[in-house]
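Sequence of (Fe-S)-binding protein (Streptomyces tsukubensis).
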Amino acid sequence: MGDTKVKTAETSPIRDLVARRRAGRSLEGPFYTDREFFALDIAAVFARQWIFVAVDAEVPEPGDHTTVDIGPYSVIVVRDDEENLRAFHNVCRHRGSRILTEGRGASGNLVCGYHKWTYGTDGALRYAPSQPADFDRGCFGLKTVHVRSVGGLVFVCLADEPPADFAEVAARIEPYLLPHRLRGAKVAARTDLVEDGNWKLVMENNRECYHCDGHPELLRTFFPTYGYTEENVPTALRPAHERYLRADAEMRGTYERLGLPYALIEELDSRATGFRIQRDALDLAGESFTTDGRAACHRRLGDLPTPRLGHLALHLQPNSWFHVVGDHAITFSVLPLAPDRTLLRTTWLVHPDATEDEDYDLATLVKIWTATNEQDARLVARAQQGISSPVYEPGPYAPTEYQVEAFCNWYITRLREALRR
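Predicted 3D structure, token representation.
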């Protein structure tokens, strides 16, 4: 399906638009508004790259499963009877019905609600009623999808041959993640927010803090100097920058004492699996994303001896970012629904033994990022409205928006590769 759409794009204006993309400026309007571009994005990006879709904590026991829609594809992620992760296309091998329509469950076998064809957690067809004597169940197992857990974060790839560098990237980021023991964590909350904008606008918005004065709750602890250098910090942000330098020096000492990797690794557009990872300081108490910076949960993730750890920030192209603090973790997954509609799925993880109302107050835990997500959704909708105007033309990125440029360059590289195939 994906290859057909890419070949169709070869004879359309898409090829010219991709070829003439100007570095350092935003993309032209059709990238965000045209259905043909949206189809190409699914085929060239979401059907070929590793996509973050879930966390191990959503499928902790054999038989637990969750589903995710990636464009026209629907994927089941399930924990099999040997406690391994499996992923399958959510398409019955009988007449193509969706097998599972609920997002999550723990039913063991996967039963199609149409004609009751029943599959094991290994994808094998176990039961197909009223078939002839010579019917071979072994020919009708579920179609598999590549799946991998990286430090408790679950990724799938729809391509026959996934990007080869993912194993290397996983090996480099897992040492940052493993001390927090996300694989054994518990889901405290999960929200789905549909934003009225193209998926790329959602990603671009997350990659810069040029707009962060629109996030008063987040800026209680998140330094507004993100993306600035020593040379271009504006006068108004100098006090925050000085606080950051002091907190950063303290955090580096803590990380070194605890043996926690913290150095910035930034390879956002120089490889197929673009990524950025870094431990960084938080403001105020420096423990968590709360109004005073103190931990929202009394139980810390992992066996780390202090809650004052700042935050571990991870960004992966094309659709995810993550924040891990001493007491909880937040994951964000961006999933395209239409040219102008995008699902943002946010999941909060806590210690497996943490109890709501005893160890944490749920409203406090989710307050900062719930407010931030809603504010970002309004900004993305405004951007979509403006880009849809006939008078829109690409504008220049500020120096602090270099990660937006890296995302767009990574994206254009993927399209060019697909159009050459």
